[in-house]
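To whoever is covering the structure queue this week,

Two jobs came back overnight. Logging them here so there's a record in the thread.

Job A:
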Amino acid sequence: MKKPLVGVCFAALLIGATAAPATAASDERPAEPRAKAVNFAGTVALSNCSGSVVRVPDSKPGDPALVLSNGHCLEGGFPAPGQVIVNKASTRSFTLLNASGGNAGTVRASKIAYGTMTDTDMSLYQLTSTYSAIESRYGIKALELNSKRPEQGRAITVASGYWKKLYKCNIDGFAYRLKEGSWTWKDSVRYTPACQTIGGTSGSPVIDDATGKVVAVNNTGNESGGRCTDNNPCEVDENGKVTVREGINYAQQTYWIVPCVGAGNKIDLSRPGCELPKPARMK
């Protein structure tokens, strides 16, 4: 994990278009999907991290909006291994960005709907504003979470609201387990070297360039070649083999959020298909 820019001692600020129909004749290869121009619209800046206003495919305009970031970006500090936070009151504010990276306005949380650093590194804030209110007031639409697992080789953009910077690369592959200090994450996305994300990009949406949908949330990288230590995550495969990739950065997949969001955009960890880690009392 990256060192924090402000606030938390030891904490890391880890390193977040629909295709046009093919019109070629039948004896020609189908056209490749035309990538959307990914920009900053819908991203947010936190006090120490990045994030984005997101929706699932079934979210309604009148639902309270959600902001996605990292679990290690929570204002209370890092959740302990095994700790899962649900429905905790919060009044945290977020600076909403427009397409060019300008400050469109401020939105505010009503609660931490979900947060953990177990198996994944993720936080979801519920806002006091609905999607329709945000669009009406600021002209900003939420980014949609892809409901499918991302694919190796896809072109992606990590959009940092904190730095107002876009990092472009590809999905190089996946780490069966990614271990960093006390935390272990499952099936993490590994970037190709072009995405040299830094502290403050933590929580950035990772956007598939071809669909414009969020496929992961940016969270960490190996800074100095250390082995499984803070700020130096290592990959562990199914057989326990450890691989260290100095200078390579990672994200946590977000498709598994989708089954856990019910009516009214409420996080419901008991829904069929929901595999997000649960608080001890629910196990």
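Job B:
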Amino acid sequence: MRNEPLKLPLILLSTTILLYHTFHLFYLWSEIPDTIAIHFNKGEPDQWGSKNILFIMPIVSTLIWFLIRLLAKKPEKLNYVNLTEGNKKIQYVKAEKVMVLIQYMGAVTFIFANEAFLRNAVGMESRLPFSIALGLLCICFIAPIYHLFWAATLKN
């Protein structure tokens, strides 16, 4: 596959993060109160929910990973800027790379956000995983915008 050098580190990184989070979730399960903060307003919790909600984001993360994987398999089905016969092959390769990046970084974003909720629920510092989740979310938005500007400057 064209993206193997990109995929292998992303697979290892995302799998490691998912396994760590899963272990951490089950390790701390008995310490998590039955009701946890699930929404914050100006840094203060304003909505509460069951601790079982901590299983939703890893499931959503996995579902999003599979859905974006379907899109990444068929880059010719995506919309392009400045697509010509001369540059379509390179555009497809670059679009597939962007989709793979979004696939893995998007999935890991949910895991880090869930880690922040988990840490907050047990009274641990949660700013670092939340900051990482926000940073990864920015990457997921910037990558396609960068690709759009790159494609607009292509000749041929």
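Note for Job B: The mean pLDDT is 88.

Please reply-all if you pick these up so we don't duplicate work.
Q.
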